[in-house]
Amino acid sequence: MEARVESLPQTQKLIRLGVSVCLILLIGTVGYHLIEGWPFLDGLYMTVITITTIGFGEVHPLSQEGRLFTLLLIVSGLGIVGHTIVAASRWLIEGEVEKVITRRRSMKAIEKIKNHYVVCGYGRMGSFVCHQFRMRGIPFVVVENNPEVQDKITQAGFFLSPGNATEEDVLLAAKIKTAKGLVSVLDSDASNVYVVLTARELNPQLEIIARAGEEDAEKKLLRAGANRVISPYHIGGMRMVMSILKPHVMSFLEVAMDYSQLNVELEEVKVAADSVYCGKKLVETDIRKDLNLIIIAIKKSDGQMVFNPGPHTRIECHDVLIAMGEKRYLELLDQKAGNIHD
Description:
Alpha-Beta Plaits; 4-stranded antiparallel beta sheet; Helix Hairpins; alpha/beta; Rossmann fold; about 350 residues; about 15% strand; elongated
């Protein structure tokens, strides 16, 4: 972020210098035309070889006034052109050096990262996922092969592991073995399948979410090892239907999913074996009374989902509570459920 702020004045300076050079060329061209009566092309040519000190000689013999004009052109133009060349060279060199330094810092930081997410692909979906992760303070590494897109990633301040996500070495460089999950949102379904296969082999415990463009790709991705497969077209269609048929329900869900609108969000909390909630009924806990949280559902260890649990529903060890409320109270619930974070 700081690099972008510092580079802005430098860019404006180059623009001003470029305008100055164009102005000198215009003045020189018109000046030779008016003083010596030369064609505009000859005037432009003479101006260029004069201010760049190439020294090919005069296009036509100069009058006394023409020589005086040439001297003024050299004094004013040579400094501007030289300053422009130096500024442009500095801008290019510093930009490249900055990229190299940023990449090295990113790679060093990645070497120490753990319990993070690996995002493969930085297209429209990938960039959205990354910005949501950053908004929630979730550590992640982006894997991207396109050099132009890589620049966007580093400019955004994200950790980058450059290379093809389908290659094992690239995933290892992104610390896939110490990662908590992987999100594969590449443009090709075949590439996503290959990424899922490779990631599952490298880390059998990894939570893998993959994007599917075609309907038949979902089964392939699940067989390859993805825990969940997301179809943007299916989800988009469902949201459109819900927005038409049940607009108020859709508004509620949008607020619940996007906690930036309000300080309210949905969270899933796993109840550890040593949690104070194990074996207690909901009414016996402080979840509603003190934390002011709503338990929307409880997922049992056998996979059964209990929707809208009543006050006498018993919480068992290894249950997953689907809770809604303020972030600070959700964090307290997570702590009391026995979850310890590094």
